[in-house]
Amino acid sequence: MKKDIILCGVGGQGILSIATIIGEAATQANVNLKQAEVHGMSQRGGDVQSNLRLSTDPIYSDLISMGEADVIISMEPMEALRYLPYLSKDGVIVTSNKPFVNIPNYPEEEALFAELASLPNVVQLDIEQVAKDAGSVRSANVVLLGMASKYIEIVSDEALRNAVATIFARKGEKVVESNLKAFDMGAEAAK
Predict the structure, then answer these.
(1) Burial of 138 (0-12, 13-18, 19+ CB in 10 A)
(2) pLDDT digit string (tens) for 33-47?
(3) Under-70 pLDDT residues of the chain
(4) Half-sphere exposure of 43 (CA within 13 A, CB side)
(5) What is the pLDDT of residue 45?
C-alpha cells in the first residue's frame, strides 16, 4: 500500500506541522516515508509545499510525479488548484474554503470555487471556524488534517492522534487537548 500526499498552503499556516505529524504517525506505524519540502517566503506569505510519500514497500524518490498524488491537502483553495496537475485521476483534494488573499492578482472567489466545484473529489470546510469552535484558531491546520485522515488510510486515525499528542506535548496538555479536539472535529466534519 502507498499514499502520495501533497501538502500546500501559504507560509505560516502550519503546513510543515501537518507534515511533521503525518511523518511521526508513519514512523510510529513502521511505514516507510520520504519527504521533500519547498519553503516559500513564509514571513511574506509565500508558497509552502511538501511532498509526502508513504508506503509499506521501499520508496526510491521523495518527489511525487505529475498525475500521481493520491491526496492534496491544502490550507488555501488557490494553492490546491496550483498543484492540480500532480493529482491522480482518482485523487482527492482536501482544502480550506477560506481564501488567503496575499497577492494583487488573486483570482476572483467565484471563479476559484467554480473550478473546485468542477472537480470530482473535493472536500472543503471553513477550518478556521471549526478550529475556533474547538478552542484554538491556531489549530486550523489540525482540523484540516482530521478532514484528510480518512484519505490517508496507510496510517490510522489512532496513529495520527498519537502523533498530534507527541508533537504538541512540549506545549502543554491544554494545547494537546485543543489539537486533538480540532483533529476529531475535522474528521467528523469530513464524514
Answers:
(1) middle
(2) 999 876 555 555 677
(3) 38-45
(4) 0
(5) 63
Helices (H), the chain: 15-28, 77-82, 109-117, 127-134, 140-152, 157-168, 173-189
- Cα 24 to Cα 27, 33, 75, 161: the distances in Å are 5, 10, 20, 10
Distance, CA of 157 to CA of 89 (rounded, Å): 25
Cα–Cα distance, 191 to 186 (Å, whole number): 9
Predicted pLDDT at 173: 95
Q: Model-level pTM?
A: 0.92
C-alpha closest to that of 187 among 155, 161, 169: 161
Secondary structure of residue 103 in the 3-state scheme: coil
Contact 92, 151 (CB under 8 A): yes
Matching residue, cell 498543484: 83
33 HSE (CA, 13 A, CB side): 21
